[in-house]
Amino acid sequence: MKITLVEGDITAQRVDVVVNAANSSLLGGGGVDGAIHRRGGPAILAECRQLRASRYGRGLPTGQAVATTAGDLPARWVVHTVGPVWSATEDRSGLLRDCYANSLRVADELGAATVAFPLISAGVYGWPLEDAVRQALAVLRSASPAHVTEARLVLFGAATYAVAERVADAS
């Protein structure tokens, strides 16, 4: 699987799957989650509401992943995953890696060839940027999906992209 770092807007990626750094409610929010729901339109929210009414009445657990339509996004599906909130006193890196692994698994089960990931938990959830990149790359580099041939790590802003590039080159 080819891994590509891209500076840009995840909602503009022309891929089979866009991964959403969702909150557990699956009903939209801020950051990546809000942007995906706004640009993707009401079809995504409608499917998320169905998921809440059936399988995820208490919300999607941290580290897990589930797929919906991509609505108006230039993708076929959105895979929603809930990242952990960073903690200085508790190692939650396993949950962060689970987000990438489970999202990739769901995308592969859908038959997707291309997947765009945001930098999960690195926004309002406070995960340190360099470690967030390291965790993402560790999972993506060790994965061997059956169908996915390209995973993009989409970084918002030149400064974030520069950090990701430096971490990728060093690891």
UniProtKB/TrEMBL annotation:
CDD domains documented for this protein: Macro_OAADPr_deacetylase
PROSITE patterns (alphabetical): MACRO
One Pfam family recorded for the sequence: Macro
Location of the Macro domain: 1-171
Organism domain of life: Bacteria
Residue ranges that the Swiss-Prot or TrEMBL entry lists as coiled coil: none
Protein's name according to its UniProt entry: O-acetyl-ADP-ribose deacetylase
Organism of this sequence: Micromonospora thermarum
